[in-house]
Amino acid sequence: MEIEIRSPKSEVEWEQYYSLRYRILRQPWNQPRGSERNEGDEIGLHFALYENEILKAIARLDINDEKSAQVRFMAVETEIQRKGYGKQVMLAIENYCKSISISEIVLHAREIAIPFYESLDYQLVEKSHLLFNEIQHHLMSKKV
Ligand SMILES: CC(C)(COP(=O)(O)OP(=O)(O)OC[C@H]1O[C@@H](n2cnc3c(N)ncnc32)[C@H](O)[C@@H]1OP(=O)(O)O)[C@@H](O)C(=O)NCCC(=O)NCCS
Fold first, then answer.
1. Where are the beta strands (DSSP E) in the chain?
2. Cβ(86) to ligand 1 under 6 A?
3. Predicted TM-score (pTM) of this structure
4. What averages of pLDDT result for each successive group of 10 residues across the chain (144 residues)?
5. 42 C-alpha to ligand 1 centroid (Å)
6. What residue ranges do the domains of the chain occupy?
7. Looking at the domain covering 3-102, what would its CATH class be?
Protein backbone atom coordinates (compact mmCIF):
# COMPACT_ATOMS: atom_id res chain seq x y z
CA MET A 1 0.00 0.00 0.00
CA GLU A 2 1.54 3.28 -1.04
CA ILE A 3 0.68 6.34 1.03
CA GLU A 4 1.58 9.81 -0.17
CA ILE A 5 0.72 13.07 1.59
CA ARG A 6 1.17 16.06 -0.69
CA SER A 7 -0.61 18.90 -2.40
CA PRO A 8 -2.97 18.00 -5.23
CA LYS A 9 -1.30 18.65 -8.58
CA SER A 10 -3.45 18.15 -11.66
CA GLU A 11 -6.78 19.79 -12.37
CA VAL A 12 -8.49 16.46 -11.70
CA GLU A 13 -6.79 16.15 -8.31
CA TRP A 14 -7.82 19.67 -7.33
CA GLU A 15 -11.40 18.92 -8.31
CA GLN A 16 -11.35 15.77 -6.15
CA TYR A 17 -9.84 17.74 -3.28
CA TYR A 18 -12.56 20.40 -3.25
CA SER A 19 -15.24 17.80 -3.87
CA LEU A 20 -14.18 15.92 -0.74
CA ARG A 21 -14.13 19.14 1.28
CA TYR A 22 -17.60 19.99 -0.03
CA ARG A 23 -19.14 16.55 0.55
CA ILE A 24 -17.88 16.21 4.11
CA LEU A 25 -17.92 19.76 5.44
CA ARG A 26 -20.63 21.62 3.47
CA GLN A 27 -23.16 19.40 1.69
CA PRO A 28 -24.65 17.81 4.86
CA TRP A 29 -25.73 21.34 5.88
CA ASN A 30 -27.24 22.07 2.46
CA GLN A 31 -24.59 24.59 1.53
CA PRO A 32 -24.20 25.28 -2.19
CA ARG A 33 -21.31 23.95 -4.25
CA GLY A 34 -18.60 26.62 -4.21
CA SER A 35 -19.16 27.35 -0.51
CA GLU A 36 -16.28 25.00 0.28
CA ARG A 37 -13.75 27.42 -1.20
CA ASN A 38 -12.41 30.69 0.14
CA GLU A 39 -9.71 33.17 -0.76
CA GLY A 40 -7.32 31.61 1.77
CA ASP A 41 -7.03 28.63 -0.59
CA GLU A 42 -4.68 30.68 -2.75
CA ILE A 43 -2.07 31.04 -0.02
CA GLY A 44 -2.86 28.07 2.25
CA LEU A 45 -0.81 24.87 2.10
CA HIS A 46 -2.78 21.84 1.04
CA PHE A 47 -2.25 18.35 2.45
CA ALA A 48 -3.93 15.48 0.67
CA LEU A 49 -3.47 11.82 1.57
CA TYR A 50 -3.41 9.46 -1.41
CA GLU A 51 -3.43 5.72 -0.90
CA ASN A 52 -2.49 4.02 -4.14
CA GLU A 53 -3.29 7.37 -5.76
CA ILE A 54 -6.84 7.43 -4.36
CA LEU A 55 -7.69 10.51 -2.28
CA LYS A 56 -8.67 9.62 1.28
CA ALA A 57 -8.19 12.65 3.53
CA ILE A 58 -7.43 16.36 3.29
CA ALA A 59 -6.56 19.45 5.32
CA ARG A 60 -5.35 22.99 4.76
CA LEU A 61 -2.61 24.67 6.77
CA ASP A 62 -2.46 28.45 7.10
CA ILE A 63 0.74 30.00 8.41
CA ASN A 64 -0.43 32.70 10.83
CA ASP A 65 2.98 34.15 11.72
CA GLU A 66 6.55 33.02 12.39
CA LYS A 67 5.51 30.88 15.33
CA SER A 68 1.96 29.78 14.69
CA ALA A 69 -0.05 27.93 12.07
CA GLN A 70 -3.71 26.95 11.79
CA VAL A 71 -5.27 23.76 10.48
CA ARG A 72 -8.50 24.20 8.54
CA PHE A 73 -10.90 22.09 6.47
CA MET A 74 -9.79 18.72 7.82
CA ALA A 75 -11.90 15.95 6.30
CA VAL A 76 -11.82 12.22 5.71
CA GLU A 77 -14.11 10.27 3.35
CA THR A 78 -17.15 9.14 5.36
CA GLU A 79 -16.85 5.37 4.87
CA ILE A 80 -13.21 5.32 5.93
CA GLN A 81 -13.28 7.47 9.05
CA ARG A 82 -11.67 5.98 12.20
CA LYS A 83 -9.05 4.13 10.19
CA GLY A 84 -6.13 6.40 10.95
CA TYR A 85 -6.14 8.58 7.82
CA GLY A 86 -6.96 11.78 9.70
CA LYS A 87 -4.21 11.11 12.18
CA GLN A 88 -1.68 10.56 9.39
CA VAL A 89 -2.56 13.91 7.83
CA MET A 90 -2.28 15.70 11.18
CA LEU A 91 1.11 14.11 11.86
CA ALA A 92 2.37 15.15 8.42
CA ILE A 93 1.22 18.70 9.17
CA GLU A 94 2.94 18.62 12.54
CA ASN A 95 6.21 17.42 10.99
CA TYR A 96 6.02 20.11 8.36
CA CYS A 97 5.44 22.76 11.06
CA LYS A 98 8.45 21.52 13.02
CA SER A 99 10.59 21.66 9.88
CA ILE A 100 9.85 25.37 9.47
CA SER A 101 10.19 26.10 13.21
CA ILE A 102 6.51 26.77 13.88
CA SER A 103 6.00 26.18 17.59
CA GLU A 104 2.21 26.21 17.93
CA ILE A 105 -0.61 24.73 15.88
CA VAL A 106 -4.13 26.02 16.49
CA LEU A 107 -7.46 24.99 15.05
CA HIS A 108 -11.18 25.48 15.50
CA ALA A 109 -12.59 21.99 16.07
CA ARG A 110 -16.14 21.00 15.44
CA GLU A 111 -17.58 19.58 18.66
CA ILE A 112 -17.75 16.12 17.11
CA ALA A 113 -14.04 16.18 16.26
CA ILE A 114 -12.75 17.19 19.71
CA PRO A 115 -11.91 13.59 20.79
CA PHE A 116 -9.92 13.16 17.58
CA TYR A 117 -7.76 16.22 18.28
CA GLU A 118 -7.48 15.35 21.97
CA SER A 119 -6.09 11.97 20.97
CA LEU A 120 -3.35 13.92 19.17
CA ASP A 121 -2.64 15.99 22.32
CA TYR A 122 -4.42 19.18 21.32
CA GLN A 123 -5.75 21.11 24.30
CA LEU A 124 -9.08 22.86 24.48
CA VAL A 125 -8.63 26.62 24.79
CA GLU A 126 -12.13 28.09 24.54
CA LYS A 127 -15.47 27.87 22.85
CA SER A 128 -15.39 29.71 19.53
CA HIS A 129 -17.86 30.27 16.69
CA LEU A 130 -21.12 28.61 15.70
CA LEU A 131 -21.16 27.58 12.01
CA PHE A 132 -24.44 27.45 10.05
CA ASN A 133 -26.25 28.24 13.32
CA GLU A 134 -25.61 24.75 14.63
CA ILE A 135 -22.04 23.51 14.58
CA GLN A 136 -20.27 24.65 17.72
CA HIS A 137 -16.52 25.06 17.35
CA HIS A 138 -13.83 25.10 20.03
CA LEU A 139 -10.40 26.65 19.72
CA MET A 140 -7.70 24.04 20.39
CA SER A 141 -3.94 24.27 20.36
CA LYS A 142 -0.78 22.24 20.60
CA LYS A 143 2.86 23.15 21.14
CA VAL A 144 5.03 21.32 18.64
C1 LIG B 1 -12.66 14.09 12.53
C2 LIG B 1 -11.89 13.37 11.45
C3 LIG B 1 -11.04 14.35 10.67
C4 LIG B 1 -10.97 12.32 12.13
O5 LIG B 1 -10.26 11.58 11.15
P6 LIG B 1 -10.30 9.98 11.19
O7 LIG B 1 -9.48 9.46 10.08
O8 LIG B 1 -11.73 9.56 11.20
O9 LIG B 1 -9.67 9.69 12.61
P10 LIG B 1 -8.49 8.66 12.95
O11 LIG B 1 -8.90 7.28 12.55
O12 LIG B 1 -7.20 9.15 12.39
O13 LIG B 1 -8.51 8.77 14.54
C14 LIG B 1 -7.32 8.80 15.30
C15 LIG B 1 -7.71 8.71 16.77
O16 LIG B 1 -8.54 9.82 17.12
C17 LIG B 1 -9.52 9.40 18.09
N18 LIG B 1 -10.87 9.58 17.52
C19 LIG B 1 -11.18 9.83 16.22
N20 LIG B 1 -12.51 9.99 16.07
C21 LIG B 1 -13.03 9.81 17.30
C22 LIG B 1 -14.36 9.84 17.81
N23 LIG B 1 -15.42 10.09 17.02
N24 LIG B 1 -14.54 9.59 19.13
C25 LIG B 1 -13.50 9.31 19.94
N26 LIG B 1 -12.21 9.29 19.51
C27 LIG B 1 -11.98 9.54 18.23
C28 LIG B 1 -9.23 7.95 18.40
O29 LIG B 1 -8.33 7.91 19.48
C30 LIG B 1 -8.56 7.50 17.13
O31 LIG B 1 -7.74 6.40 17.29
P32 LIG B 1 -8.46 4.92 17.34
O33 LIG B 1 -9.41 4.86 16.16
O34 LIG B 1 -7.29 4.00 17.23
O35 LIG B 1 -9.17 4.87 18.64
C36 LIG B 1 -12.84 12.61 10.48
O37 LIG B 1 -13.57 11.64 11.18
C38 LIG B 1 -13.79 13.52 9.72
O39 LIG B 1 -13.49 13.98 8.63
N40 LIG B 1 -14.99 13.78 10.30
C41 LIG B 1 -16.00 14.58 9.63
C42 LIG B 1 -15.56 15.99 9.33
C43 LIG B 1 -15.02 16.72 10.54
O44 LIG B 1 -15.62 16.75 11.58
N45 LIG B 1 -13.84 17.32 10.33
C46 LIG B 1 -13.16 18.05 11.38
C47 LIG B 1 -13.59 19.45 11.33
S48 LIG B 1 -12.85 20.37 12.66
1. 3-6, 45-51, 54-63, 68-76, 104-110, 123-131, 135-143
2. yes
3. 0.97
4. 96 98 97 96 98 97 97 97 98 98 97 97 96 94 97
5. 27
6. 3-102
7. alpha beta
